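User: Teach me something about this protein's shape.
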Amino acid sequence: MRKVFFMLVIVLAVTAALSAQSYTVQSVTGRVQREAGNSRVDVAVGDVLSGDTIIHTGIGASLSLKEGERTLTIPAGQNGRRVADLVASGSGIRIGGNVALANSGAVNRTTGQVSTASARASDAAEEENVAAE
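Assistant: First, the predicted structure itself:
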């Protein structure tokens, strides 16, 4: 019983700590909204969101948040989820960093032409002359 109670206290403490954090909106692509009471409000660059903020990202939309030194990118399709839950689970979130394009100089290989069964059958019919009896 003590273990269950102890684990419950830890989970609640972590949840409270994540909810207390604030995230500053760095960039918004597409339609991103947050819930405000019974309505939805568009999210704009410079807004400060708490961990309890429920967001909705439309098709092709994304949201970049800054928390301390970290940059978090929340992709499309995150509808009705709390920011703290997204950060804690890491689902679909890309955490900052720059990706460089590397040119390895490798030659792209393509597959050769593959004929279909009907093409092979018509080729075979042309090759053999069958005399009608």
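Now, about its shape. The beta strands are 22-29, 32-36, 39-42, 48-50, 54-57, 62-67, 70-74, 81-82, 94-95. The chain is about 30% helix and 30% strand. If you'd like, I can walk through any region in more detail.
User: That's plenty for now, thanks!
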